[in-house]
TrEMBL record:
The active site is at residue 152. Signal peptide: none annotated. It is found in: Cytoplasm; Mitochondrion outer membrane. Substrate binds at residues 150-152, 187, 194-196, 250, 280, 286-289. Mg(2+) binds at residue 105. GO terms for cellular component: 6-phosphofructokinase complex; mitochondrial outer membrane. Residues 3-312 form the Phosphofructokinase domain. One of its GO terms (molecular function) is identical protein binding. GO terms for biological process: canonical glycolysis; fructose 1,6-bisphosphate metabolic process; fructose 6-phosphate metabolic process; proton transmembrane transport; regulation of intracellular pH. The chain holds residues 155 to 522 of 936 of the full protein. This is ATP-dependent 6-phosphofructokinase. Belongs to the phosphofructokinase type A (PFKA) family. ATP-dependent PFK group I subfamily. Eukaryotic two domain clade "E" sub-subfamily. Keywords: Allosteric enzyme, ATP-binding, Cytoplasm, Glycolysis, Kinase, Magnesium, Membrane, Metal-binding, Nucleotide-binding, Transferase, Transmembrane, Transmembrane helix. Catalyzes the phosphorylation of D-fructose 6-phosphate to fructose 1,6-bisphosphate by ATP, the first committing step of glycolysis.
Amino acid sequence: KKKIAIMTSGGDSPGMNAVVRACVRMAIYLGCDPYCIYEGYEGLVRGGDLIRKMEWHDVRGWLSEGGTLIGTARCMAFYEREGRLAAAKNLIAHGIDALIICGGDGSLTGADRFRAEWPSLLDELVEKGEFTEEEVTPYRHLNIVGLVGSIDNDLSGTDATIGCYSALQRICAAVDLIEATASSHSRAFVIEVMGRHCGWLALMAGVATGADFIFIPEKPREDNWREEMCRIVENHRKRGKRKTIVIIAEGALDREGNKITPQMVRDLLADKNGLAIDTRITTLGHVQRGGTAVAYDRMLATLQGVEAVKAVLDATPEMPTWVIAITENKIVRKPLMQAVQDTKKVAAAIESQDFDLAMSLRDAEFAE
Ligand code: ADP
């Protein structure tokens, strides 16, 4: 009987529990034993009761639940070979021969490294007398499949990561709430959203709320961003718009690579010698990560979880480590490291689309 372990790693995201539920139940359905590894790579390295066999009913009610009920952690030990050796020992001790990991690009890169190193880790365990050659023989090939759990939608090769639509929904709901006050008092709000390297949340929230201006890391603002933003905001105000919403990603930059902060934007909008708008900053923070998963994330997590179990059973040593993606509404398997490398080119992809136009459909931008 195959033993398949499931873990969540890196930053939590809504839908991770739905992934675990789908994997556990699909594994049972296909006649395998599912295990959960608690606390991400920490659980793999420490072993013991952090690796637990799961039953069908253990994941009841997990479909909509936010965060990850099996825990996640950053694990320094897994960056070192020593830590990965301990992880290999724990997997073999539990008789686990396949691993499904739901996490961000860091976690998935670690997974690929672990798989590549696997044969030499086994050799070392035999050398050290932890296991005999006969004991490790059934585990010569470790199959690993990745699933992308991230609110940032920051992996290339997939249309959506598990959790991103829940976070986007949360941001839009927050902006809707803020808009009441903004309109009432004719104020401006600078809203900081998550996204250190990837501005998908800020960009899509900008489109979905009709924000006046946005800042994202992939598209550093020109030197004249101050004039540009003030001109647009002033135009909107002249046409009778009483509220101003500026959305800024954590990793917003200018062309020189300098950080653009919410404070800078606020000071500019509030400048007595300029627009002199009463301006407040709202940092949404971890509210964006929380709450139940939206329908899309539940669906994505479930379909991808099912596919991950099938993929991990199909994989052979010659095949690359797979990540489960969604492209053009189809659930597909893709080489994991290709997707990680392509992610670096994502800025180009964003510039090629019509988001500038979508952003410009705000109040009267073309009504001149
Ligand atoms: P995310 O998965 O959300 O991108 P991190 O980059 O913090 O988050 O990665 C989560 C964990 O994955 C790390 O704490 C570490 O244990 C493991 N990890 C990340 N990158 C590597 C790597 N290159 N080699 C080994 N382990 C890694």
